[in-house]
Amino acid sequence: MTQKFDVVVIGAGPGGYVAAIKAAQLGLKTACIEKYQDKDGKIALGGTCLNVGCIPSKALLDSSWKYHEAQSGFAIHGIEAKGVSIDVPAMIARKANIVKNLTGGVSTLFKANGVTLLEGHGKLLAGKQVEVTAQDGTTQIVEAENVILASGSKPVDIPPAPVDQDVIVDSTGALEFQSVPKKLGVIGAGVIGLELGSVWARLGAEVTVIEALEKFLPAADEQIAKEALKTLTKQGLKIRLGARVTGSEVKKKQVTVNFTDAEGEQMLTFDKLIVAVGRRPVTTDLLASDCGVDMDERGFIYVNDQCATSVPGVYAIGDVVRGAMLAHKASEEGVMVAERIAGHKAQMNYDLIPSVIYTHPEIAWVGKTEQQLKAEGVAVNVGTFPFAASGRAMAANDTGGMVKVIADASSDRVLGVHVIGPSAAELVQQGAIGMEFGTSAEDLGMMVFSHPTLSEALHEAALAVNGHAIHIANRKKR
C-alpha cells in the first residue's frame, strides 16, 4: 500500500531537515528522504553542512587557531609553552566526533517531532508522487500533498585539475588530511578556499592561493576586503590574483599546476592541491521529465520569492535555488515553506542574510556594501571603529580589523554593517537585528552597550557615522 504524507522533503541538509521538523511541528504528516551515508555505511543526516562543510571546517579552524596561539601567541600573556606539537589524526578524529554527535542529534529531533525518515534517493514524479530508491536498488512510491526539494549542492569540478581525493582534493578531501602538507595549493580565494587554506597554513603548510579574479573578495565591502587581503598575506597565505589555472600533472605524490597571470605562464609544485572554485546544485535524477518543475541551464530550479516552483504544491529551497548558498538561508527558506504549506503567510527578508568567512580574524557583513550603494547613487554616511582602540580587544590581544557602519545620508537608516575582526559574525548579527527593525545609526548610538566588550566597536562605529564617536577622533565634516 502506498504511503501518503502531507509533506515529503527530498534531502536532509540544513534546508530539508529544518523544513521537515517545522512541518511536523505544524501538525503535518511529514517524511524526509536522505541517501547520504557516512564511512560506516549508515545514513547521516545534516547534508554537506554538518557532514563535510560548515561544522567540520569550523572544528579544524578552531583547533588550528589554538595550536597557532600556543605556538606564537602565549608569550605576550606571560605563558611559556615549549615544544608544542600537533597530532593531526587526533584533530581529525575530534572533528569526526563532533559531526557524529550533530548528525545523531538530527535523527533524535526527527523522532521527537514524528518525522518519518525514508532512506534512499528521492525523485519527483508527475502528480506529486515521489520515488524512493534504496541502497539495494529496491524502490517504493510515496504520495504527497506537498513536496519540498532540498537536494543541496556539491563542489564544482574543473577540467585543468581533476580531483582524485588523494593529491588533488575538493573541500571534502581537505578535511581528511592525516598530516600537514609541506606545500599546499588552493584554487579559489572564496570562503572555502580561504578557510581551508588558513587551517593548514596555521599548522605549518606553505600555502599558495590561486584566484582567477583580479579582485579579492568582490562580494565584500572594498575597505574590508582590502584589510582582509593585507591580514591574510601577513599570516603567510600567498594569494595570487588574476591567475587562471590551465592544467595540472600528478607525479610521485606531487602535483604541478600551470597557470597564467599578468606576468605570463607560471608553474608551481605542491604536495596537495585543494580545488575550491564554488559549488553547483545537485539535481541529477531528481526530477522526472514529466514532473513539470522547471530548471535553468545551470541546474537551478526556478522558484518565486516564496520558493514555490512551477508546479502547485512543489517547493524548492537552499542550494538548488537562486541566492546565496548558505546553510542559514536554506534553513529559513525551509521554515517559510513549511509555514506557507500550513496556511500561514510567511515571508523571508532576502536583503538581510549575513555572510561570514571564518578565517581569523573573521570577516562578516550584512546589507549593502559602500560600492553597491555608490553604484546605485545612494548618498551615505560611513562610520568606522578599529579594534585597535577597543579595550576588550586589547585585553584579548586580538586588535586587528574594524567595524564599519553605512547609513543613508538623508534618513540615517543603517544600510550595511561590515566587520573584520574578533567575533565579527556575532557583531554583524547585532547589526542584522537592528536593520530588520529599520534602525538608524543614531538608534544604535543611543543604546547602552556593556563595557568592556567587543560590541562597543559597533556602538562607536554607529556613533562615528554622524561624527559623534567618543573613543576615536571623528573625521571633520567637509
UniProtKB/TrEMBL annotation:
PROSITE patterns: PYRIDINE_REDOX_1. Pfam families: Pyr_redox_2 (PF07992), Pyr_redox_dim (PF02852). GO terms for molecular function: dihydrolipoyl dehydrogenase (NADH) activity. Binds 1 FAD per subunit. Its EC number is 1.8.1.4. It is an enzyme of class 1 (oxidoreductase). It catalyses: N(6)-[(R)-dihydrolipoyl]-L-lysyl-[protein] + NAD(+) = N(6)-[(R)-lipoyl]-L-lysyl-[protein] + NADH + H(+). It comes from the Bacteria. Keywords: Cytoplasm, Disulfide bond, FAD, Flavoprotein, NAD, Oxidoreductase, Redox-active center. The active site is a redox-active disulfide bond. NCBIfam families: lipoamide_DH (TIGR01350). Belongs to the class-I pyridine nucleotide-disulfide oxidoreductase family. Homodimer. This is Dihydrolipoyl dehydrogenase. The gene is lpdA.
